[in-house]
């Protein structure tokens, strides 16, 4: 079976554009030292292409898809606080112009979806039935929430199963992600979160119980009118990288994850 790489191009291009930035200093007419950041677009593109070629050689294919994030992010509609704690940072010089060049030149397939982060688009593609063997190239730990995929990381290949992916996703649901701004279950760190997942019984039921107990001890974790079940579901949706079953391809929008009991309850008729 042929192999296709799904590259988290946001990260790769950001890194490669950053390494070629250089500082120039000159003295103006007033005698002040002026520091100017500059970059060579050709050099940045060359470094990025070199990165892609090295990956293709290592993984034995020249079939590569560069996946970028869209201009919007559906999680901000799910919860306005998503990534709100991140300070505004600029993209490195040449970043946007190189994306435009990659699209125009057509050497690689470049894809993005307006409302999706790149990792969600990768998740949809990687979990969809395909005639090719797809390998995700990313160091984002959240890719491990995707079932039955191969993930190439700096430290080697990771293989997931449906069981391992669901466990990792629920672990993130319990722990939260301070980088993305959602806090998870009140009072739970990695050790206690893992204990919740190790319990016998229904995993989601155990997650709900943990949130109930945590919010009872820390009621300020809840917003006005919010229940502990609401908070658990919110964190689960924020933590879940989209799978192909979470995507409405006709209307080009996510299908937010719903617990089985709610899905049955909400069936029309």
TrEMBL record:
Source organism superkingdom: Bacteria
Pfam family, one: 5_3_exonuc_N
Signal peptide boundaries: none
Every 5'-3' exonuclease domain range: 29-253
Keyword Nucleotidyltransferase annotated: no
One BP term from GO: DNA replication, Okazaki fragment processing
Gene Ontology molecular functions: 5'-3' exonuclease activity; 5'-flap endonuclease activity; DNA binding
Keywords, sorted A to Z: Exonuclease, Hydrolase, Nuclease
Gene3D superfamilies membership: 5' to 3' exonuclease, C-terminal subdomain, 5'-nuclease
Xref: PANTHER family: 5'-3' EXONUCLEASE FAMILY PROTEIN, FLAP ENDONUCLEASE XNI
Protein name listed in UniProt: T7 exonuclease
The species this protein was found in: Glacieibacterium arshaanense
């Amino acid at each position: 079976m042929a192999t296709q790489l799904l590259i988290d191009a946001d990260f790769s291009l950001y890194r490669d554009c950053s390494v070629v930035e250089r500082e120039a200093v000159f003295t103006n007419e007033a005698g002040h030292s002026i520091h100017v950041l500059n970059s060579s677009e050709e050099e940045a593109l060359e470094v990025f292409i070199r990165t892609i070629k090295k990956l293709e050689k290592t993984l034995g294919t020249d079939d590569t898809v560069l996946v970028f994030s869209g201009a919007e992010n559906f999680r901000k509609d799910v919860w306005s606080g998503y990534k709100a704690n991140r300070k505004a940072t600029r993209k490195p010089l040449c970043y946007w112009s190189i994306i435009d060049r990659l699209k125009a030149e057509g050497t690689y397939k470049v894809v993005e979806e307006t409302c999706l982060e790149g990792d969600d688009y990768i998740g949809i593609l990687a979990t969809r039935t395909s005639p090719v063997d797809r390998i995700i190239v990313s160091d984002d730990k959240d890719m491990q929430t995707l079932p039955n995929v191969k993930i190439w990381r700096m430290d080697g290949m990771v293989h997931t199963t449906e069981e391992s992916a669901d466990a990792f996703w629920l672990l993130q649901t319990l722990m939260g992600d301070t980088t993305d701004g959602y806090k998870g279950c009140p009072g739970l760190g990695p050790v206690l979160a893992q204990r919740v997942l190790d319990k016998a019984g229904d995993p989601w039921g155990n997650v709900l119980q943990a949130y109930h107990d945590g919010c009872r001890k820390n009621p300020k974790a809840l917003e006005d009118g919010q229940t502990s079940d609401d908070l658990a579901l919110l964190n689960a949706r924020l933590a879940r990288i989209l799978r192909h079953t979470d995507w409405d391809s006709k209307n080009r929008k996510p299908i937010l994850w719903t617990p089985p009991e709610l899905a049955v309850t909400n069936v029309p008729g």
